[in-house]
Amino acid sequence: MDTLQKTIHNSEEPVVCRSCEARHGGLCSTLTPQQLCDLNRHSSRKKLEAGNELLGQGELVTSYGNILNGVVKLSKMMADGRQQIVGLQFAPDFLGRPFLAESKMTAEAATDVEICLFPRRVVDRMVSEVPDMERKLHNQSLKELDEARDWMLTLGRKSAQEKVASFLYMIATHIDPENDDKSAFDLPLSRADIADFLGLTIETVSRQMTKLRKEGIIRIENNRHITVPDLDALSEAAGND
């Protein structure tokens, strides 16, 4: 259900934005209270259950959004129907590419997701008018490029165990930015999706998870809940520097 964000008081910062992670660490952190009020007048919050599509590959882009909670799965489909998961986005990431009329990939809620949506025309205008907003988007794009290069190394050179450990380390350090405790989380992807993301078979993913559990690097409960007793040990298992 959409909830219009209309709680504003003159030029002060909108009440609904004050405790928002995206306001302090995301795209909205570049805006003055007045600019934030301007953007807020056009915004809406939306909650989606896991499995729901936010945007389809090839669809016309009508809105962008700040991810407030949850994990978004990005995937690309080939002409013959084969699909590849190409990335994950977490709060307070910005979902979308300003000035891009057509989506190059599918965005789907990997977990239950809450997102703050803005019309494309409004954000495109503000990006042109607010240099700090443009710079923030540029920096996010560079960050995503660096992460893509790191993931190329993971897929191309790391062992199966290092790949699985790298995935778990990424989830542990990104899934809940407001929580300083990175020792426990629920997997946002199924074993099949993890296998797709890592270029492994489901059986290999399961074997490596079991191996990491037997080595005491992780604990697994209910097949989805992961506890990491020592994050440094998981990082070492991932082959990180």
UniProtKB/TrEMBL annotation:
GO cellular component assignments: cytosol
Residue ranges that the Swiss-Prot or TrEMBL entry lists as coiled coil: none
Alphabetical list of Pfam families matching this protein: cNMP_binding, HTH_Crp_2
The protein's name in its UniProt record: Crp/Fnr family transcriptional regulator
Span of domain HTH crp-type: 158-232
Record's keyword annotation contains Transcription regulation: yes
Cyclic nucleotide-binding domain mapped to chain residues: 27-144
MF terms (GO), sorted A to Z: DNA binding; DNA-binding transcription factor activity
Keywords: DNA-binding, Nitrogen fixation, Transcription, Transcription regulation
Keyword DNA repair recorded: no
Domain of life: Bacteria
PROSITE patterns named in the record: CNMP_BINDING_3, HTH_CRP_1, HTH_CRP_2
InterPro entries (UniProt xref): cNMP-bd_dom, cNMP-bd_dom_sf, Env_Response_Regulators, HTH_CRP, RmlC-like_jellyroll, Tscrpt_reg_HTH_Crp-type_CS, WH-like_DNA-bd_sf, WH_DNA-bd_sf
Gene3D superfamilies: Jelly Rolls (2.60.120.10), Winged helix-like DNA-binding domain superfamily/Winged helix DNA-binding domain (1.10.10.10)
SMART domains recorded: cNMP, HTH_CRP
